[in-house]
Amino acid sequence: MMLAGVLSTKNLLSRRPFIFSNHQFTRYLLAALPPHWLTLDKSCKLLNLLSTQHPNLTFSLVRIISSALRTMASNYVVPPNASPAHRSFAEFVNSWNALDLDAITATMDDEKFMWSILPTSMKIPPLSKAQAVAYLKDHILATLDSFAFRVLTFTEPNSSTVISHVQSEGVSKRGNVLKNEYLIVLNFVPSKVEGELPKISTYWEFTDSKALTEFLAAEAKARAAAAK
Q: Nearest 5°: phi and psi at 190?
C-alpha cells in the first residue's frame, strides 16, 4: 500500500507533498529523527502532532509509527539484589509492555487474584483472574496496538507489597493515542510451584479516569465513522 501526506513538522520532513511506502516511511522516520527523539515519550508527542495537525493522514500511517513505538519500549530492569516481589513486579510491567496475554496472566495467582480499577465512580467491578483474562482479551488486547508502562517511582513497604507511580503510553488499532497515569498497589502471595516468583493476589489500579474516558470516546467516534 502507498500512503500520501503533507507534513509540516519542523526539521523532520519537507512541506511539499510526497508519496512513500510503509517501509520507506519507517526508514525515513528513524533516519530523520535525532537520537534524543528515539524515546517512547517523544515519539508519542510526534504521533499526537501528526494525528491532530494532519487528520488527513491515514490510519495506516499511525500504525507504522505505533510499530516503531513498540520497538522503542524498553524493559523495566531491576537491580541484582532485587527482592522476589520486585522481580515479580518487573515481570508484570514487562508483560504489559509486550501486550503478552499469557505472560500477564502468569503473574496472577490462580485463586486469590483480584483486580480493582479505581476510582469507584468508574463503576468497574473487581475482576477475578478469569474475568481479568476475558477483559484483557476482549477489551485491552482487542483495542491496543502498542502499549508501554514507564515506572516513575517504586516503593516496597514490606516483602509482599509494592507501590508504584507509573505512566502509560499507547496507540489503539484505530490510531488513537492513549496516555494515562496510575498509582498501582500489588500484593503478592508465594507461588504454589517451587522456584517460581510470587504471584499477584490483589491489584489495585488508581487510574486517570478523565484520560481514559476521553480515549474511549475517541474510540467510539472512530468506530462510528468506520461504520458509515
A: -60, 145
> What CA–CA distance (Å, rounded) separates 10 from 49?
11
How far apart are alpha carbons 104 and 67 in whole angstroms? 20
- Cα–Cα distance between 183 and 46 in angstroms, integer? 26
61 by Cβ neighbours in 10 Å (0-12 / 13-18 / 19+) ranks as: buried
User: What's the N-to-C CA distance of the chain in angstroms?
Assistant: 23
What was the pLDDT predicted at 16? 44
Q: Tell me how crowded residue 129 is: count the other CB atoms within 10 A of its CB.
A: 18
Helix (H) or strand (E) holding 211: helix 209-227
- In terms of DSSP H, where are the helices of 73-204? 84-97, 101-106, 129-135, 141-143
Residue 47, C-beta contacts closer than 8 angstroms, at least 6 positions apart: 62, 65, 66, 69, 171, 177
Rounded distance, CA 211 to CA 178, Å? Answer: 8
Q: Which three cell numbers stand for residue 63?
A: 500504525
Say what the pLDDT of residue 83 is. Answer: 97
SS3 73: coil
C-alpha cell at 48: 499526537
Residues 202, 116: Cα–Cα separation, whole Å: 8
The mean pLDDT of 180-189, rounded to a whole number, is: 97
